Amino acid sequence: QVQLVESGGGLVQAGGSLRLSCAASGRTFSSYAMVWFRQAPGKEREFVATFNSIGTTTYYADSVKGRFTISRDNAKNTVYLQMNSLKPEDTAVYYCAAGHALSTRQADFGSWGQGTQVTVSS
Questions:
Q1: What is the arrangement of strands in the sheet containing 3-7, beginning at the earlier edge strand?
Q2: Which residue, 19, 32, 41, 101, has fewest beta-carbon neighbours within 10 Å?
Q3: 7-58, pLDDT tens digit by residue?
Q4: Rounded to whole angstroms, how far apart are CA atoms 101 and 60?
Q5: Of 122, 116, 112, nearest to 18 (Cα)?
Q6: CB 36 within 8 A of CB 13
Q7: Residue ranges of E strands in 26-105
Q8: 109-115, long-range: CB within 8 Å, 24+ apart, which pairs?
């Protein structure tokens, strides 16, 4: 398994931007599909964005499409989530996860980070 640590969360005003990072340990990072989920207070965890191990295929939730961009740097063992035009409804704890196949389902990802809080004020 791979160990994951998220960072980059914080408080931002609506319309602002944040970039989340997910640093991974392990020599096989480049073989994993990576995903971002988020969980708002009182709500279930939801899919945000994902791509395959080589970054050629990406999927985004409709709610973030056009505003968020997922990327990876395999040389740095890091995945990023660039979030622009943030809205109060983007407030949540954001989690990255690693899996062996491209998917939008939580059950398909076996390694998870601890999460980073993103708060968007109106």
A1: 3-7, 18-25, 78-83, 68-73
A2: 41
A3: 999 999 999 999 999 999 977 788 899 999 999 999 999 999 998 888 789 9
A4: 16
A5: 116
A6: no
A7: 33-39, 46-51, 58-60, 68-73, 78-83, 92-99
A8: 109/35, 110/1, 111/1, 111/2, 111/3, 111/4, 111/32, 112/4, 113/4, 113/5, 113/6, 113/22, 114/5, 114/6, 115/6, 115/39
